[in-house]
Amino acid sequence: MATAKLWIGTSWKMNKTRDEALTWASAVAPQSFPSDMQPFVIPPYTSIAVVAEALAATNVRIGAQNIHWADAGAWTGEVSASMVRDCGASLVELGHSERRTHFGDTDGRVAQKVAAALRHGLTPLICIGETAADRANGQADRVLAQQVRAALSGVAPEHRQATVLLAYEPVWSIGEGGTPASAAYAQARHAVIAEVARAATGRSVPCLYGGSVNAGNCRDYVRQPDIDGLFIGRAAWQAEDYLEIVGRCADA
Q1: In the CATH hierarchy, which top-level class contains the domain 6-239?
Q2: Annotated active-site positions, please?
């Protein structure tokens, strides 16, 4: 593993009521995690506080699924970095392909949000990934390099030593009907991402793999030298399934 910690987490997207979120958190709270593993969960905004409270005595980190780039202001319907931190989040997912496709999150916008996260002491988890067309045209590495450089371009000098995470999620591999990337394909992309990120920051930047991860394939990914963890979707939305993946990764 390229980093000391193996990050294993999940985002619930627009799913779970507060009661459902509490059920998940209550099942995870009594569990112990290996010392070299960093668990995390990213609920919807409405459940951040209840999940943070339920997991307060654990080392599970809580995240938000997006933030606005401004600290405050006339941005109806938006949520700032300070607001999610106030609810108990210490992590924020940025640049997911759904945000890029449906909500106008360009590379430039992602860079602004990364800078905002770091200003407020949040760890940005920056999602990057190529489309099926990019892959077919042999452009995957070029697209990934562009996304990485852009996302990190706005990091202020005083924040260059702060923790930043990347999540490689091939667009063609996520969601219902997605096809998991082979471990070899994911490792090859991660090696490129690691090189680009190191050139941009002067240090190693952890990169997680996400894309149809499940209990059957998780071990193959975490055994790869440049894959620093897993960012899991629906396969971890039930607590018992998340814990099964955690256990299999620990065994690997």
Answers
A1: alpha beta
A2: 96, 169
